[in-house]
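User: My instructor asked us to take a sequence, write out its structure as tokens, and then describe one feature of it. I'm not sure where to start. Here is the sequence I was given:
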Amino acid sequence: MATDYRFYLAGQWEQSAQKLVVTNPYDDSVVAATWLASEADVERATQGAVSAAPVIGALAAFERAAILAQASVILTRRRDEVGRMLSAEAGKPIRDALTEVDRAAMTFHVASEEARRLGGEVIPLDLAAHGKGRIGIVRRFPIGPVAAISPFNFPLNLSAHKIAPAIAAGNPIVLKPATKTPLSALFLASALDEAGLPAGGLSVLPMSRELGDRLVTDERFKLLTFTGSSSVGWDMKARAGKKKVILELGGNAGVIIDETADVAYAVKRVVTGGFAYAGQSCISVQRVFVHDRLYDEFARLLAAKVQSLVVGHPLDSTTDVGPMIDAGEVDRIEAWVKEAVGAGARVLAGGTRVSRSVYAPTVLDGVPEVAKVCAQEVFAPLVGLYRFTDFSQAIAAVNRSRYGLQAGVFTNDLTHMLAAYDAIEAGGVIINDVPSWRIDHMPYGGVKDSGIGREGPRYTIEEMTEPKLLVINRDTF
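Assistant: Let's start with the prediction itself. The structure tokens for your sequence are:
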């Protein structure tokens, strides 16, 4: 067995009576072990965050920035080591794992810069006679202890998107990582510990879902940030009480291939957007609406390209598509594809189980909109194709979803580009690329069932701070 990793509790490395073994989803081999926090551990972490709130909030901007910048440096320095850890615990192809390490380092670097830019504004108050002689100043203050729950699919960078803005804003944070992929988040704790974060500023505790519910309902936390499924997220919001909530939830991202699009380029990008990390991303390409004039060529090229993808061990540098997170997820997608084919869909590529935890990259056409692979979040290496003849119909089809995270539109028609931006119901519209495209400082989040609030350090910092007004009556001095 590999090294055991203790969890990080308010500046101390601890363990409990309940061990958590982390396995590689590809072959079920043991990667390492850590421990599940107990109820007492969670309480200690919560008290630690409450006690640390004035300490973290009192850190000067340059001090918060320096801690975050140093964490970024540590991530970069240990890139290969962390990439292998991430690949092993998540089953993520090593090329994608190393990219995630780079992204996490950028997230901390950008948060460091935003810590230095956190300011306010001066408001003129003499818009009415009784405001003469008065000025207003608005500053943003830390909101207080933050509770965070991160998912398995990007366990390093999505944890970074919660931890880094919290520290930049001057808040302590308690993070529950996914129990299938806790090691990456524990590495972030070690990086911040090495960078000099004061005790209590961070706790990273693998824990049961039942204990995680305490983070949701505990009034000592002033903000909850959650990334995961829509059903779980909205239930958490209903139980979160008075605290602010940021939800980054699911999607079934739509792509429009307009008749003016470059077909070869669109195929290349859809393959990347639909099959990276076995499609296990909230913004993975799922529904592709192709103009009738281009449909046959697009479908032929896409199927050929998908069939050429290398499926294999995540630590093999040639692997394009690795395992899903567990065998149960392969069972699910098998059943969904069978349902779609039974309802009239046609398999253009894939459609089979490769091994216990690997599903072949799959392309379907003629999928009924009511089928699960269209109507729900597929979260698997599967793309469905649909024909359209009128651009407005394609927009309407993208919008026939309870989700609205990001959408992609391939077009060289300016009018269509603007129409898509105006009418598509999503948090982001990506022109001439797939909805899976993201750079970590941009505002990222969705509408409808896809969530509330935005990630991206600057935007999360705004959520994690409260504006406070100061009014000065100059005439009394």
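For the description part of your assignment, you could build on this observation: The CA atoms of residues 441 and 456 lie 5 Å apart. Try explaining in your own words what that tells you about the chain.
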